[in-house]
Amino acid sequence: MIAQKYLACAVFACSLAVVVPAQAGDPCETVLCMFGKLKGAGVVENCDGPVADYFNIVKKKRGKIRLDRTADARQSFLDSCPHADPDATKKINKKFGKVI
What we know:
About 60% of the residues lie in helices and about 5% in strands. By secondary structure, it is mainly alpha-helical.
């Protein structure tokens, strides 16, 4: 009976690891690249990955994209850069937060 409880806990813990996506990118790089994009720099060298990290954040519920939650998650990602100017991250997210 105790072994079953441990097995159930292990299965539950593994399922959480699968459900929660990891964000491997550096949010500070993303802020810099997205700010360049915001200011009209277009494609900035070496920014494909950081820009993709931002746009790969998409929140869904029952298969439907939730634009408000996607924008909130993207804002949280940008805000996780401790050196980023909050006004700049808000401007970035205002323009690109709901873009799919």
